[in-house]
């Protein structure tokens, strides 16, 4: 190690929800003597998170993880449990949109399969958890720009010239991951001719903790319940039309929402900022390289049709924490190929299947072709009559299928 290098046990590039949750989980699993660095291009002052207009669907598994990390207690009063889901499939012009599928969104003992919470609150709570752990060092205002490896470790270079040394580097630096690119790991994916739009509305009538998913020709329009008589509205729109909607004044924008919202919850009003972002899907060709692990959007970016992007990232957190902790307790090199290979085997198939499923759903439901709409309606009606299928979908949304990491079961690592 050179004199100007700062020594850590693990370096995490990316200080979003996934990177910070991973730091908290590793700090708890490896003990207070562990030194974990989290580097991000944004300062850790909460300013970036506070401007986020989105809300996330937090699965039951992710809620278990946050509870195990002691973070959920600060979120519980702000999270809205989704206890039921209604699904429609109609044209934009249809005044009456019959519910084709309706199901109870709870698992064992009535536990909700999902919760809706504003991203700003979620990120702030995870950041607070990281700040409370002395073994975590937050290095804000300087992104990781590159790295080199050798037999004994990895040296990470930050944008301000600092160099960090550790046995393991985790790239949780988002969809355009510079470290993934530096590693030579390619991606398979494509951009959609669609954008995502999000805002918050208030409404006259209570939502009663029900989420509504309208499948419209341009893409899904979701009404996700928040605390109070408020809902997060998130929808997929054809790109040119979506940009035109975003350019409208508040009255025009609200009118577009009302066309899609329906009248079940009465009159609506804007209750938060709006945002738009391009939609794409990608899957890294590998989740690991020499002393490098990818996590979150750096490894997989999925269509938001099912709201599972964050949950897939937190599943990475749970699996990687368990793999690293098991290796450290056996005295193994946590950055070795054997250790990282176990992580990749655990998470890669789940990520690939999820990406393919969400892409297929978007293509299936983003069409107004009459024959396809008829077939979709028949299929949804069949699902509505099969409780076993509904239970399967709820378990998938809860993140409690397959080989479940300990943290997703609420157990310490």
Mean pLDDT, to the nearest integer, reads: 90
Radius of gyration: 22 Å
**Gross geometry:** globular
Structural class label = alpha/beta
Distance between the termini: 31 Å
Q: How is the main sheet built? A: 9 strands, mixed
Strand content: 25-35%
The low-confidence parts are none
Please tally the helical runs, counting DSSP H or I stretches of 4 or more residues.
Answer: 11
Which range best describes the helical content: under 10%, 10-25%, 25-40%, 40-55%, 55-70% or over 70%?
A: 25-40%
Total strands: the figure is 22
Oligomer: single chain
Written account of the structure:
The protein is α/β, with parallel strands linked by helices and 413 residues long. The chain has 11 helices and 22 strands. The chain has helices at residues 17-30, 47-50, 60-68, 119-131, 178-183, 239-246, 250-261, 309-329, 337-365, 370-384, 387-398; strands spanning 5-7, 10-13, 36-40, 55-59, 80-82, 84-89, 99-104, 114-118, 136-140, 144-149, 154-158, 163-166, 168-171, 187-203, 210-216, 219-226, 230-238, 268-270, 275-284, 288-289, 292-294, 300-301. Strand 11 and strand 12 form a beta hairpin. Helix 1 (17-30) runs parallel beside helix 4 (119-131), helix 1 (17-30) packs parallel to helix 8 and helix 8 runs antiparallel to helix 9 (337-365). The radius of gyration is 22 Å and the shape is globular.
């Amino acid at each position: 190690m050179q004199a100007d290098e700062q020594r850590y046990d693990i370096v995490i590039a990316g200080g979003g929800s996934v990177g910070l949750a991973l730091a908290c989980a590793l700090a708890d699993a490896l003990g207070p003597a562990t030194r974990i660095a989290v580097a991000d291009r944004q300062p850790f002052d909460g300013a970036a998170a506070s401007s986020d207009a989105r809300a996330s669907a937090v699965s039951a598994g992710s809620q278990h993880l946050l509870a195990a990390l002691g973070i959920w207690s600060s979120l519980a009063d702000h999270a809205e449990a989704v206890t039921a889901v209604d699904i429609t499939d109609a044209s934009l012009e249809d005044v009456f949109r019959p519910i084709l599928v309706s199901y109870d969104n709870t698992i064992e003992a009535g536990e909700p399969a999902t919760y809706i919470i504003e991203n700003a609150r979620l990120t702030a709570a995870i950041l607070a958890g990281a700040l409370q752990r002395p073994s975590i060092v937050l290095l804000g205002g300087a992104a990781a720009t590159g790295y080199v490896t050798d037999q004994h470790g990895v040296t990470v270079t930050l944008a301000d010239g600092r160099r960090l040394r550790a046995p393991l580097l985790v790239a949780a630096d988002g969809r355009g991951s510079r470290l993934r690119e530096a590693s030579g790991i390619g991606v398979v994916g494509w951009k959609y001719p669609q954008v995502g739009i999000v805002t918050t509305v208030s409404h006259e009538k209570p939502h009663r903790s029900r989420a509504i998913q309208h499948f419209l020709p341009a893409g899904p329009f979701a009404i996700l319940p928040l605390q109070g008589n408020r809902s997060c509205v998130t929808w997929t729109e054809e790109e040119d039309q979506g940009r035109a909607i975003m350019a409208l004044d508040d009255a025009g924008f609200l009118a577009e929402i009302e066309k899609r919202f329906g009248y079940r919850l009465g009159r609506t009003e804007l209750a938060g900022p709006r945002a738009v972002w391009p939609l794409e899907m990608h899957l890294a060709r590998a989740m690991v390289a020499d002393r490098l692990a990818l996590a979150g959007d750096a490894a997989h970016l999925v269509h938001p049709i099912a709201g599972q992007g964050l949950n897939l990232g937190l599943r990475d957190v749970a699996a990687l924490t368990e793999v690293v902790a098991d290796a450290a307790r056996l005295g193994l090199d946590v950055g070795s190929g054997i250790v990282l290979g176990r992580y990749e085997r655990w998470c890669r198939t789940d990520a690939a299947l999820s990406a393919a499923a969400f892409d297929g759903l978007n293509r299936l439901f983003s069409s107004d072709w009459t024959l396809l709409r008829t077939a979709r309606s028949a299929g949804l009606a069949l699902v509505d009559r099969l409780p076993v299928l509904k239970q399967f979908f709820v378990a998938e949304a809860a993140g409690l299928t397959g080989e479940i990491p300990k943290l997703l079961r609420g157990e310490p690592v």
